[in-house]
Here is the input.
Amino acid sequence: MEALQALQQRVSSPKLCEPAPSVEQRQAIFQAALRAADHANLRPWRFIVVEGDARGILGELFLRVSLAKTPELDEAQRAKILAKPFRAPMILVAVAPFTEHPKVPELELQLSCAAAVQNILNAAFALNVGAYWRTGSMAFSEQVNEGLGLAAKDQIVGFIYMGTPAGRVKPVPSLNVDDFFQPLEV
Ligand SMILES: Cc1cc2nc3c(=O)[nH]c(=O)nc-3n(C[C@H](O)[C@H](O)[C@H](O)COP(=O)(O)O)c2cc1C
Here is the structure.
């Protein structure tokens, strides 16, 4: 797909099925992530690739953290949490590692990582790979960070679910450029 067309037409794929992106597709998509804008070349992007049986480990971590907060979860609620990572054949945990820098505030590390995630979504769409960016409470939990071997101040920017789009592609919402871009009044 032509680059500009992919940027203008991209939509998320909430329903995903096998197969996961191929080795070639991953290379192309991951390379796109590494071209995110990046203040001071800090490269604040780490991606933990979770697929196959490793999705069960992520589900168990989600359940442990959920139970620590809400011990009275019933069987159905527990099963739902365990099943979350199985909504896609592959998940990227996108992390902005924390680092001190005199000119780059913490927010900019997260913004750069978010830009890398958007590059992933765009590149995936251009290759007909489905992707969906999720956060939720698990992205903002010190216990999840610990379980994934991250430092407490590292920030999970998203769980990027990836696979083959299942069902029809959503229509692109029609938005008016003038509603979002206005000249500065002088
Ligand atoms: C930082 C961020 C976090 C998000 N977290 C969730 C989420 O937890 N659950 C969800 O259903 N959608 C979430 N979304 C929205 C979807 O990824 C998606 O963008 C939205 O459904 C709109 O679809 P579109 O990308 O096709 O326009 C998040 C988006 C962003 C940017």
About this structure: Strands lie at 16-17, 46-51, 90-96, 130-134, 155-165. The pocket of flavin mononucleotide is lined by residues 11-12, 132-136, 158, 170 (CB under 6 Å). The longest strand covers residues 155-165.
